[in-house]
Automatic annotation (TrEMBL):
Keyword list, A-Z: Oxidoreductase, tRNA processing
Biological role stated in the UniProt entry: Catalyzes oxygen-dependent 5-hydroxyuridine (ho5U) modification at position 34 in tRNAs.
Originating organism: Almyronema epifaneia S1
Family: Belongs to the TrhO family.
Coiled-coil region: none
Protein name: tRNA uridine(34) hydroxylase
Enzyme nomenclature, EC number: 1.14.-.-
Length: 295
């Protein structure tokens, strides 16, 4: 089995370039695959490897005092969900485009998974799913509001047009692993909202810790790797992914006439011209021929 680890940390990293080289070298040495994003505001990663390789890589990472106490979420996959290792330097580790959203300065109140049900069942609490619409479409918490965003950059506009700090005095937010809520909660506090809560460790920690019979989660949770989605206990879910647009696909979508493996699905079919579909078919054919020819 392959160990999949996800983690992030908001911390000052002025030495991103040097750190990039070290992490790439160590990751390759221990056969780690996946993606690590570095920015001056911190680190965000989803990586996979053997148990031995993962332990060695994480031990190296946490020798840096800035990453001591790093909260790491792990799950198992039957095969490596990534093809290679990428260590990238970005302007932000999660793109939001609002400098006032600074989690190193202020964040909302963390809520442990075992306390989350009580928070979101309070009728005075507005519960918001901060993820994108295609993620929400396959699973979310009961009664959660869907901002219907296509990217996290759109979340501030949703706040400005739909939320009022005088009316919505108690807001609870959640996302996949917690990182987006760090910035979202910092932004809401800056906009004058007083009681801002967010699920510590995100949906993944909730699904890991809360038994299915006690859970208020409905559906599956989209993840950004080849597993596509996970269930309670972080067991692999039932969805596949459109290789053309990245949209999660259930069995109904895969049986739809608009679905063509590697070419289109019901979510992107109408956006593709016949010429574009022909190019995608040709590329898929070339990839198949190259795969057959490889030793």
């Amino acid at each position: 089995m392959t160990v999949v680890a996800t983690f992030y940390q908001f911390v000052s990293l002025p030495d991103c370039t040097d750190l990039q080289k070290k992490l790439l070298s160590q990751g390759q040495h221990h056969a780690i695959k996946g993606t690590l994003l570095l920015a001056e505001e911190g680190l965000n990663a989803t990586i996979a490897g053997s148990r031995q390789g993962m332990d060695a890589f994480l031990a190296f990472l946490q020798k840096d005092p800035r990453f001591k106490g790093l909260e790491i979420r792990e799950s198992l996959a039957p095969s490596p969900p990534f093809e290679r290792l990428k260590v990238k330097i970005k302007r932000e580790i999660v793109t939001f485009d609002h400098p006032v959203a600074d989690p190193t300065r202020q964040v909302g109140t963390y809520v442990e998974p075992h306390d989350w049900n009580q928070i979101i069942c309070d009728p005075d609490t507005l519960v918001i799913d901060t993820r994108n619409d295609y993620e929400v479409s396959i699973g979310t918490f009961q009664s959660a509001q869907n901002p219907q965003t296509r990217s996290f950059r759109e979340f501030p506009k949703y706040v400005q047009t739909h939320l009022d700090p005088q009316k919505h005095t108690r807001v609870a937010m959640f996302c996949t692993g917690g990182i987006r809520c760090e910035k979202a909660s910092a932004y809401l506090l800056d906009q004058g909202f007083q009681q801002v809560y967010h699920l510590k460790g995100g949906i993944l920690k909730y699904l890991e810790q809360i038994p299915a019979e006690e859970s208020l989660w409905q559906g599956e949770c989209f993840v950004f790797d080849e597993r596509v989605a996970v269930r309670h206990g972080l067991e692999p879910g039932s969805y596949d992914m459109c290789q053309a647009c990245g949209h999660p696909l259930d069995q109904t979508a895969q049986s739809a006439p608009q679905f063509e493996a590697g070419i289109s699905c019901p979510a992107c079919y109408d956006r593709l011209t016949p010429e574009r579909r022909d190019r995608l078919r040709q590329r898929r054919l070339q990839q198949a021929q190259a795969h057959r020819a490889s030793p």
